[in-house]
Design brief:
Helix content: under 10%
Shape: globular
Strand content: 35-45%
CATH architecture of the largest domain: Beta Barrel
Order of helices and strands: EEEEEEEEEEEEEEEEHEEEEEH
CATH superfamily of the largest domain: Trypsin-like serine proteases
Distance between the termini: 33 Å
Strand order of the largest sheet: 15-16-17-21-20-19
Number of domains: 2
CATH topology of the largest domain: Thrombin, subunit H
Largest sheet: 6 strands, antiparallel, barrel
Radius of gyration: 16 Å
């Protein structure tokens, strides 16, 4: 269900990667309580996901950046019928964001023009520490395509994915494509693909609190479910993220 918004060719590989995002082989969420931090970024249509990290701030991917006309929709499983539609005050990409040999520093923070009220369908999610969650199961969610050539749902899709090691990720994508700003997951029957870029990779920490490990960044151009996908790793850039929230 997740893909990136632009095409990135992977050298010396049979795979292609592109920024878009969607969830493949997920399930329809029964309520927003399963992912109350999830937001839909829209112009005249849904184009990316994101996560509430405070009542006024959304974490997303830098490749989701749009200069004008973006609104933040949240609080409903349906992205076509959101009870909350907020304007964007600022949309800031990480200054080191790049799309050369790989998609690196794929971080952006949105400041909304209003403050969200927290309830069972709307909650912010905590930022992570540097805990290694390799081998554990995380949750992904979004409104992206349901397959490489499939349609886009209006109801939120949710799936689980295993966190994989950096070495395992590099074995699929190559050493030059994977950096310290990335965390990899999937390859076990579900996938990230087009339309959910910027959306959450979330996991419960040792205390049972949900934390936002990453933001959907890039993966297989055909959203194959046996290929790992890549998220921008929030623990690597906490200083920059917190700086945006405090500015």
């Amino acid at each position: 269900m997740f893909k990136l918004l632009f095409l990135v060719l992977l050298a010396a590989s049979v795979h292609q990667a592109r920024p878009d995002g969607r969830i493949v082989n997920g399930e329809t969420a029964n309520s927003m309580a399963v992912a109350p931090w999830q937001v839909s970024l829209q112009t005249s249509y849904h184009f990316c996901g994101g996560s509430l990290i405070s009542p006024t701030h959304v974490m997303t991917a830098a490749h989701c950046y749009q200069r004008f006309g973006v609104t933040v929709h949240f609080g409903s499983v349906s992205n076509a019928n959101s009870p909350n539609v907020f304007d964007v005050s600022t949309f800031t990409q990480h200054p080191s964001y790049s799309t050369g040999i790989t998609t690196d520093y794929d971080y952006a923070v949105i400041k909304m023009a209003q403050s969200a009220s927290m309830n069972s369908n709307t909650q912010d999610i905590a930022l992570p520490d540097d805990t290694d969650y390799t081998g554990q199961t995380a949750q992904i969610s979004g409104w992206g395509q349901l397959s490489g050539s499939g349609g886009t749902p209006t109801l939120l899709q949710v799936a689980t994915v295993p966190i994989v090691s950096e070495d395992a990720c590099k074995s699929q994508w190559g050493n030059l494509r994977i950096t310290d700003r990335m965390i990899c997951a999937g390859g076990a029957g579900t996938s990230a693909c087009m339309g959910d870029s910027g959306g959450p990779l979330a996991i419960k920490d040792s205390s049972g609190k949900w934390v936002l490990l990453g933001n959907t960044s890039w993966g297989s151009s055909s959203c194959t479910t046996n290929t790992v996908s890549v998220w921008s790793k929030n623990a690597n850039q906490l200083s920059w993220i917190n700086g945006q929230m405090n500015s």
